[in-house]
């Protein structure tokens, strides 16, 4: 994560909001032999002091025998390449180089793995509830037959990451002049990649110019 203070998200609430908006995380665990990395949806519990999710028992994470392992989850938002050709200042003194604008949150904590199939429902229902809320016909865990769910529970393990530290970064050209900032927005909007447009939208939401 970028260390510059100008890019830091404004407090825990902003980081939690980002996690809710982008729950698909890269989870890295400090296993005894070598780090294990998995892509997994993780959602905050109601107290916002823990992330929970689940993975297949075939996932390398499920093979870990240790508990209370140090782990880091990264939640990436929109990101895009920034061309120096978009800076009006480049035509004045040539002092411009490529960079990358992005939004991301990092959560560090202690990972525990739940293998008891009788305890797995909260690991399943939390994700579906968050993602289904607001839909016209929201799906709930209770919609599926119990015998079907029982079979699926035997194929997964639950993950809980007790949060010890979290921070977030919005690197969105805040340190540029107004002309260069506006040039980056125009450049991003001229791209065909929807992610570039999303970054431009986030820049405009800041309202710094």
What does the model show?
The chain is an alpha+beta fold. It has one domain (about 5-75, about 100-170): Pnp Oxidase, Chain A. Helix content is about 30%, strand content about 30%. A 7-stranded antiparallel beta sheet has the order 2-1-5-6-7-4-3. A hairpin with a 5-residue loop joins strand 3 (about 45) and strand 4. The protein is elongated and about 70 Å long. About 25% of the residues are buried.
- Mind telling me which CATH architecture this is? Roll
For the record, the count of structural domains works out to 1
- Kindly, what is the distance between the CA atoms of the first and last residues, rounded to a whole number of angstroms? 25 Å
Number of helices: 6
Q: Which residues form runs of ≥5 with pLDDT under 50?
A: none
Q: Give the helices and strands as they follow along the chain.
A: HEEEEEHEHHEHH
Q: Percent range for helical residues?
A: 25-40%
User: How large, in whole angstroms, is the Cα Rg?
Assistant: 21 Å
Strand content: 25-35%
Largest sheet: 7 strands, antiparallel
Shape: elongated
Class by helix and strand content?
alpha+beta
Write down the CATH topology: Pnp Oxidase, Chain A
Strands side by side in the biggest sheet: 2-1-5-6-7-4-3
Q: Kindly state the mean pLDDT as a whole number?
A: 94
Task: Write down how many β-strands occur, each being a DSSP E stretch of 2 or more residues.
Answer: 7
- Going by CATH, what is the homologous superfamily? Electron Transport, Fmn-binding Protein, Chain A
Please write the CATH class name: Mainly Beta
């Amino acid at each position: 994560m970028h260390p510059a203070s100008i890019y830091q998200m404004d407090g825990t609430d902003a980081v939690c909001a980002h996690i809710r908006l982008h729950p698909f995380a890269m989870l890295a665990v400090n296993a005894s032999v070598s780090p294990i990395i998995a892509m997994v949806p993780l959602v905050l519990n109601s107290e916002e002091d823990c992330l929970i999710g689940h993975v297949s028992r075939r996932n390398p994470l499920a093979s870990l025998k240790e508990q209370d392992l140090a782990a880091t989850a990264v939640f990436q938002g929109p990101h895009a390449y920034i061309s120096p050709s978009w800076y009006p200042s480049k035509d004045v003194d040539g002092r411009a180089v490529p960079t990358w604008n992005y939004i991301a949150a990092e959560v560090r904590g202690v990972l525990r793995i739940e293998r008891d199939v009788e305890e797995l429902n909260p690991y399943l229902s939390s994700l579906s509830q968050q993602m289904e809320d607001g839909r016209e016909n929201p799906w709930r865990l209770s919609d599926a037959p119990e015998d079907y769910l029982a079979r699926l529970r035997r194929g997964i393990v639950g993950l809980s990451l007790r949060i010890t530290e979290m921070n977030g970064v919005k690197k969105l050209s805040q340190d540029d002049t107004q002309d260069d900032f506006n040039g980056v927005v125009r450049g991003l909007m001229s791209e065909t990649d929807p992610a570039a447009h999303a970054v431009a939208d986030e820049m405009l939401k800041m309202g710094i110019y």
